[in-house]
Design a protein that fits this description.
Elements lengths: L8 H8 L3 H14 E3 L3 H9 L7 E4 L5 H10 L4 E5 L2 H10 L6 E5 L12 E7 L8 H11 E12 L5 H9 L21 H5 L3 E15 L2 H8 L11 H11 L5 E14 L1
Parallel strand pairs: 2-3, 2-5, 3-4, 5-6
Antiparallel strand pairs: 1-7, 6-8, 7-8
Helix pairs in contact: 2-9, 3-4, 9-10
Bound molecules: S-adenosylmethionine.
S-adenosylmethionine (SAM) binds next to helix 4.
Length: about 270
Amino acid sequence: MTANPFLDAARVRHDLYADAGRITQRTSALARAKTAGPHPAAVIADLAASGLHGTVLDIGCGRGTTTVALAERLSPPRLIAFDQSAALLAEAEGRLAGHTGVEIMRGDFHAIALPNSSVAVTTAAFCLYHSPRPATVIAEIARCLAPGGLSITVTKSADSYRALDEVIAAGGLDPEATSRPSLYETFHSHNQADIVATCLDVQQVIHHEHRFRFTDADHIAAYVATNPKYQLPYDAIEIAQRLRETVGDGPLETTSTVTYVVAARR
Ligand SMILES: C[S@@+](CC[C@H](N)C(=O)[O-])C[C@H]1O[C@@H](n2cnc3c(N)ncnc32)[C@H](O)[C@@H]1O
C-alpha cells in the first residue's frame, strides 16, 4: 500500500469506488456541511459553454454529477461519461436517462480509447489526483481534443479540510492524521496549472474558497469514516462517541479551495 491511498490503484478500484455507497456518504456529509462556495458542476458547465459545439468528454465522471450539468446546460450532440468504475458508471447512466447523445465509456484515463482530435470539450473534475502521473492524462486530453478544443480540469487545495485532520489527531483517534501527505498531492490547486501547461495553453485559473461547518460529532464522524486519509478502526458511531469524549460535540469549521483550470489545445 502506498502512503497516499488516493494513489493506490487497487484501493481506488476495489475499495473507494467499487460501489456508490462510500462516495455517496462522503459527498452527502460534505454537502450538508457546506456554507459557502458555488456548486462545481454548475461552474464547470458555465465554463464549458464557451467551448466549441461538438463531442463533450467527462473524464472520471463518477456518479455523473458534472455530466448531468453538462447535458442540461450544453445539450451536446455526443456526451461521453468516462470512468473506470462500472458501479459509478451504472449510476451515472441512470441519472442521464432521458438525455440524448449520451455514451457510457469504461476505461483508464491514462489511455483514452478515442481517436485523435475527436473531442470539442473535455472536463476532468476531482479525479486527476488519483494519478501518480497526471501529466500523462493531460497529454491524452490534448491528443483527443480537436483544434480549438477546450479542457477544464478541477481539483482541490492540498490543505483541504485541515481542521478535520487536527480534530482527529487531537482526539487521539489517529495521531498521525496531521502528518500524512495530502490526498491531493499529485494534482492540487497550486500545481494544476503547471501540469496542464505541459501540453495545453492555459487560459484561465479560477480559485473559489469553499467553507464547511460540521454541526456535531455525528456529522464529523459520517464524513471522516469514509475518508481513506485516516486510519480509523471504528465505525461512525464509535468515532462520534470518541470525539464527544475527547474534543467535545463540535461544531467544526473548515475550508477547501476548489481550483478550475481552463485550457485550449495548442
Ligand atoms: C471523486 S470521484 C469524481 C467524480 C466526478 N468527476 C464528480 O465531480 O462528481 C473520482 C472518480 O475518478 C475515477 N477514477 C479514478 N482513477 C481513474 C482512472 N485511472 N481512470 C478513470 N477513472 C478513474 C473514479 O472511479 C471516480 O469515479
